[in-house]
Amino acid sequence: MDIAARLDAVRGRIAAAAGRAGRDPLSVTLVAVSKFHPASAIEQAYACGQRHFGENRVQEAEEKKHGLETLLRAADPLRLELIGALQSNKVRKAVASVSRIQSIDTKDLGTKVGRVAAEMGIVMPVLVQVDLAGEATKSGVPDAELPVALEALRAVAGISVDGLMAIPPFLENPEDVRPYFKRLRELRDQAMTRGLLARGELSMGMSHDFEAAIEEGATIVRVGTAIFGERPAKPA
């Protein structure tokens, strides 16, 4: 199955999941996770109408930006998003390379992104990554600390805190992940009630569980393998 067929299948699954939840499929943004895949794969997906692409590494996003300048400047442009961990020393490159950062995992990181973006004369849309399960291998703001972090970030010039993102534990049965999706939605709703978010974005769900995420309110799903196939080996 090629990229066009896989993309069409994923869109069908998104529409079906949205329908089960009584939602408009257009309320869900599909971010195609293109990490480790070549620019040519992104170009194929773009030709099929895909516009949002997610990268895990700043260096790879920067390289792909240079290779996709024509599509990034198109009337209906391609958008690169950073969905992986952002190191403090790579903030400037990230702000210059992507259209949204989904992985703000500390107040200090968000503050630095805002400072750099303001220096560049832009406002960077960001999502705050929430730690829902306390896994040592994943980062994020602990949910108990989220209101204080959002309150601080709301006052930072140069960023727009548009919503929340989470990477729940990988569990084979998507139904076992559903409680994490529900919890992130609850945190989003609480933050919106308190005026702590500029928008109500909820980025959650990947190739194996995005349908459950949509049923629980995801507005952004991050899907890689189901679109591009198995990832090539990580670049050295």
Set out the fold topology.
Blueprint: H1 3-20, E1 29-33, H2 39-47, E2 52-55, H3 58-67, H4 69-72, E3 79-82, H5 91-97, E4 100-104, H6 107-119, E5 124-131, E6 141-142, H7 146-154, E7 159-165, H8 174-193, E8 201-203, H9 210-215, E9 220-223, H10 225-228
Helix pairs in contact: 3-5, 5-6
Mind explaining what this structure looks like?
- This protein is of the alpha/beta class and 236 residues long.
- 42% of the residues lie in helices and 18% in strands.
- Strands 1, 2, 3, 4, 5, 6, 7, 8 and 9 form a 9-stranded parallel β-sheet that branches.
- Helix 3 packs parallel to helix 5 and helix 5 packs across helix 6.
- It is globular, with a radius of gyration of 17 Å.
- 42% of the residues are buried.
- The model has no long low-confidence stretch (mean pLDDT 95).
Brief summary of the model shown:
The protein is an alpha/beta fold.
List keywords for this structure.
about 240 residues, alpha/beta, TIM Barrel, nine-stranded parallel sheet, 10 helices, about 20% strand, globular
Low-confidence stretches at least 5 residues in length (pLDDT < 50)? none
Global mean pLDDT? 95
CATH architecture: Alpha-Beta Barrel
Would you state the CATH class?
Answer: Alpha Beta
Give, in order, the helices and strands.
HEHEHHEHEHEEHEHEHEH
Which word captures the global form? globular
User: How many individual β-strands?
Assistant: 9
Proportion of helical residues? 40-55%
- Radius of gyration, CA atoms, in whole angstroms: 17 Å
Oligomer: single chain
* End-to-end gap: 28 Å
